Amino acid sequence: MSTARRKAHRTAEDRILLAVTVIAWLLYLLSSLLLSWSIYHILANDHMVRQSAKDAVHEMSGWPTVKRTEMFQAALEYNNRLEQRFGSSIPADMRNEDGQPLELLDSEYINMGGNTIATLNIPSISVTVPIYHTTLDTVLDKGAGHMYGTALPAGQEGTSSVIAAHSGGVQGLLFSRLVELRQGAYFYVNIYGTTHAYQVDATTTVLPDQVEQALQEEKAKARTATSATAKKTDDPSDMHTQIPAPDKSGTARVSMVTCTPIGVNTHRLIISGHRVGTPSPAPAADSVKDTRLQALIWALVVLVIAITAAVIFHIIRKHSNIKTAKGRHHA
């Protein structure tokens, strides 16, 4: 091959290599921008969700005692009529003949409480979310939703409430870390300015069409526990109307539901717990630390320090080598 042809061949190879390199860098830049955009929106939305929860707690805590008492009484009356209204079914996300969601047609339910029913706090995994009425898509895009047809999470004896939220979406972190909860972990529901603590005692993963059956089993657990407690009391007739004080344990149950695995969503993760007293045995919510997040932050700090130290060491060593080379040259 002549010299001219070899040069032309190398030039063509160089152009192809340059084009591949430019395309690779453009794809890398594009993917980095998309990843950054996703992370930004997740964190921004998560901040808004947390702020909404804080605003809800602040609003409900500011209600007069009379109003808070009235709201609890209304919740008790609503819960006591659930069996009569719905039997053993959970009509969440069901629609009438006109395609309208049944929960939106239930004015008593929709108007229960303020803009939010309650808030959920799981400090061990840094979850703080408002709980809105219904589990419709428009609701789950901004926080957690109360499953229509289950008891309002007022902490009432013998009741079983269900809270659902997304995982792994751009709506915020929400229930993305719910899978990290283990037996014995605590979570807290603030309703009408009162905080009730719960302790995780059951975790299950089911197919979507098995969710209702699993939740019915949770309802049965609450009833069984209430019956057992009623046998030990002097006046068991009022057990279904009682809401134990925050520092007392109870038989109320709360289940949290989300899709799993993240990004696949073929199953539903259900984590349930029963009421316990706070600050004992459940510690105050603000005293529970997210140890995994703290460990991650410290790991990142150590990594940044290590990288910085390595860069500084490299610069110093390079500068020293240059000075040594210059010294030899002058010698």
From TrEMBL:
Keywords: Hydrolase, Membrane, Transmembrane, Transmembrane helix. The chain crosses the membrane at residues 16-40, 295-316. Coiled coil: none annotated. It comes from the Bacteria. Residues 218-250 are annotated as: Disordered. The active site is at H166 (proton donor/acceptor), C259 (acyl-thioester intermediate). NCBIfam families: sortase_fam (TIGR01076). This is Sortase family.
